[in-house]
Write a structure and sequence with these properties.
By secondary structure, the protein is of the alpha+beta class. The protein contains 3 helices and 3 strands. The relative contact order is 0.19.
């Protein structure tokens, strides 16, 4: 991994583990990113169709997420996947938009 990507990953993990995401929304059941550039958010208390949910979030916020069903055919309809392999400022803005959307809708 290139040094700038490793620094980017460290910054994003720090941001994601802060109150900015986990505490300030009702979507607080997320996996701990342990080396990958993504984490899963458990949305089973809010929907049974994560594909429909990610399409709605994209349409309303411009934030692209992936349905968990793409990675887990059995339980993926209960999760969404957020990748943070982009620039830190882009990820930070996406999280800000996502948090605002969650707080307005759930």
């Amino acid at each position: 991994m290139a040094p700038e990507n490793k620094l980017n990953l460290i910054k994003i993990k720090k941001h994601l583990s802060s109150k900015n995401f986990k505490v300030d929304t009702s979507w607080n059941n997320i996996t701990n990113p342990m080396g990958g550039f993504y984490f899963y958010i458990d949305v089973k208390n809010f929907t049974s169709d994560s594909q429909k949910l990610v399409k709605k979030i994209l349409r309303e916020t411009g934030v692209a997420l992936t349905s968990g069903i793409d990675f887990d055919k059995k339980h993926g309809n209960k999760t969404i996947r957020l990748s943070f392999s982009s620039n830190h400022s882009i990820i930070k803005e996406a999280i800000k938009r996502l948090v605002e959307w969650i707080n307005c809708n759930h």
